[in-house]
Amino acid sequence: MKGVKALLFVVLIAAMVLTGCAAPAAPTQAPVPTATPVPPTATPAPTQAPPTSTPAAAATAAPTQAPAGGEKLGLGEDAYPRPPKPSKQYTIGVLVPHLSNPHFVGQAYGYIDEAEKLGAKVILYEAGGYQYLDKQIAQMEDLIASKVDAIILVATNGPGTVQVVEEAVAAGIPVINCNVMTDSDKVVTRIRSDDEVIGQMQADFMGEALKGKGNVVMLRGPAGTSWAENRGNAFKARIAEKYPGIQIIGEQYMQSSPDQGLRVMEDFLQTYPQIDGVYNGADNIAIGAAQAIVAAGKAGQIVITTTDFQPDCEKFVREGVISAAVVQQTVVIGRWGIRAAINYLEGREVPKALWTPLLLVTKENVDKIDLSGVRAPDGWKPPVAH
């Protein structure tokens, strides 16, 4: 990425405390501040939007946009502090879409490790993929029948999880929504990175790297997931607003896996003779796209941006094949999910939304990034319920 200055963005966390059970406010445009951002005002928007923490390496770079509403919590894992250990042991059910991606393994570690610190028990389920909505619903119904104290949901599908969330709430079980959003407005809180800001950060990097001109294709991710919709839509809107010389010539939804990223990127390379940039909704997709670009002999000739930073993605970043990764701190998402559940069960106020910070990682700054909030320790295995 010649001529592109290495950037490290720290997106400050904003906690939005809203009345009732309405969905949280969507981020709105804010000018780039010279110091700390002033949160803009905004009206509540439909759900679909998502989460992470800050390393010691993060200096004072200002974000391109601040999340909407509420007081700034500051930086790092302790911005939403660990509550006192309760006198009783709570049982918390956790549902994630799958554990084949280190993103969710890191998040699972956050749930499990934080629960241990607070004397809670976690029952962890994975659906096996975003396409297995029915399985996630069945797992959540099992948790409801087991009368767990709280449920943390990382949704396989936004609209498809509404009914089961409301079943849990009707049974007196609070639901914390983390990372990937349900469309239900009955959740206690939503803990996530801001997917709109993720899309905008990718767009800004892409626009500057291409000097405002070129052809771009988009590999969005699974249709119906909040992150695939919001990141992709924000990327397109930002490109249209700031870089009108960049044309988005193709976009496609697919499951979040390297083989799907490889397949779709190969198709794009055959269909379009001139591709200058590739947007990826997630690193699991970008890995496959990068493999296709390397195989085509175009590594280093195409700007590739993505979200998250599993080891295979890191390898491509270090090699300069993937140009930039906007990184969520997934361990922190897990920790905050448990903290919010315990706080709610102990009768403490919980903000309606908690936004976790983001990092922009490039070949130039990769050695300065603290990954303790991003990945599980080497060798750690999630204790999945069966």
The helix content is: 25-40%
Strand arrangement across the biggest beta sheet: 2-1-13-7-6-5-3-4
CATH class call of the largest domain: Alpha Beta
What does the largest sheet look like? 8 strands, mixed
Kindly estimate the percentage of residues that lie in beta strands according to DSSP. 15-25%
Give the SSE order as H and E letters.
EEEHEHEHEEHEHEHEHEHEHEE
Q: Structural class of the secondary elements?
A: alpha/beta
By CATH, the topology of the largest domain is Rossmann fold
Name the CATH superfamily assignment of the largest domain: Response regulator
Helix count, DSSP H or I runs of 4 or more residues: 9
- Mean pLDDT, rounded to whole units? 84
Q: Which second-level CATH architecture of the largest domain applies?
A: 3-Layer(aba) Sandwich
What shape does the CA trace take? elongated
The overall number of domains is: 2
Q: Flag low-confidence runs.
A: 1-75
- Termini Cα gap: 46 Å
Total number of strands: 14
Radius of gyration (CA) equals 20 Å
Give a quick set of tags describing it.
Rossmann fold, 6-stranded mixed beta sheet, alpha/beta, disordered N terminus, 2 domains, 386 residues, 9 helices
Characterization of this structure:
- The protein has 386 residues and is an alpha/beta fold.
- The protein folds into two domains: 78-192 and 329-356, Response regulator (Rossmann fold), CATH 3.40.50.2300; 196-328, Response regulator (Rossmann fold), CATH 3.40.50.
- It is 32% helix and 17% strand.
- It contains nine helices and 14 strands.
- The chain has helices at 102-117, 133-145, 162-170, 195-209, 226-242, 258-271, 283-295, 311-319, 330-345; strands at residues 13-16, 71-74, 91-96, 121-126, 150-153, 175-178, 189-192, 214-219, 246-252, 277-280, 303-307, 324-328, 353-355, 358-361.
- The strands form two sheets. Strands 2-1-13-7-6-5-3-4 form an eight-stranded mixed β-sheet, sandwiched between helices. Strands 9-8-10-11-12-14 form a six-stranded mixed β-sheet, with helices on both faces.
- α4 (195-209) packs across α5 (226-242).
- It is elongated, with a radius of gyration of 20 Å.
